[in-house]
Amino acid sequence: MSGKLSAGLLMYRLAGGQVEVLLAHPGGPYFRNKDDGAWTLPKGEVEPDEEPARCALREFREETGIDPGSAPLLALGEIKQRGGKRVQAWAFAGEWDGVGAPPSNSFELEWPPRSGKRVSFPEIDRMAFFALLEARTKILPAQAELLDRLERALAGSGEE
């Protein structure tokens, strides 16, 4: 497969007898008013000679402030997003108290366009847990397959 490779983690928990996943909402002006189909698993571009799983752990910590520690990682495989970007993903069971904004990295963008002004925006402006049914509506369409894979894996393990 060609295209840039990103790697990410999908944190999940069992709440009220159902699986919930932690999704991140991209920051910046282009996503300010977008909700359904805009959320993502925390991920980042794999550096040359970097192990994708190591990248996924690093990016998750940097973007969420949550340290998965030594939690076992469940491989969810690879998907291809519109535009050709490939995403390798792993899932792990974890918790987040939901307090405060994520300590995400930031990026600069000329905003408003053609203004000559550079403005800094967080890569992630908020995070939330969603039950799988709602998560399928919130997540980028190409990443919905990762939710299906997680659900099948958990059903097979008896954890769901």
**CATH fold description:** Nucleoside Triphosphate Pyrophosphohydrolase
Note the quaternary state here.
single chain
DSSP E strands, number: 8
CATH class annotation: Alpha Beta
Task: Output the CATH homologous superfamily.
Answer: Nucleoside Triphosphate Pyrophosphohydrolase
Strand content: 35-45%
User: Number of domains in the coordinates?
Assistant: 1
Which word captures the global form? globular
- Secondary-structure-based class equals alpha+beta
Query: CA-to-CA gap between the ends?
Result: 32 Å
Number of helices: 3
* Low-pLDDT runs: none
Write up this protein.
The protein has helices spanning 52-64, 132-138, 144-157; strands spanning 5-15, 18-26, 43-45, 74-80, 86-93, 106-110, 118-122, 124-131. With 160 residues, it is α+β, with helices and mostly antiparallel strands. The protein has a single domain, classed as Nucleoside Triphosphate Pyrophosphohydrolase (Alpha-Beta Complex). The strands form two sheets. Strands 1, 2, 3, 4, 5 and 8 form a six-stranded mixed β-sheet that branches. Strands 6-7 form a two-stranded antiparallel sheet. The radius of gyration is 16 Å and the shape is globular. The chain starts with a strand and ends with a helix.
Keywords:
160 residues; alpha+beta; six-stranded mixed sheet; two-stranded antiparallel sheet
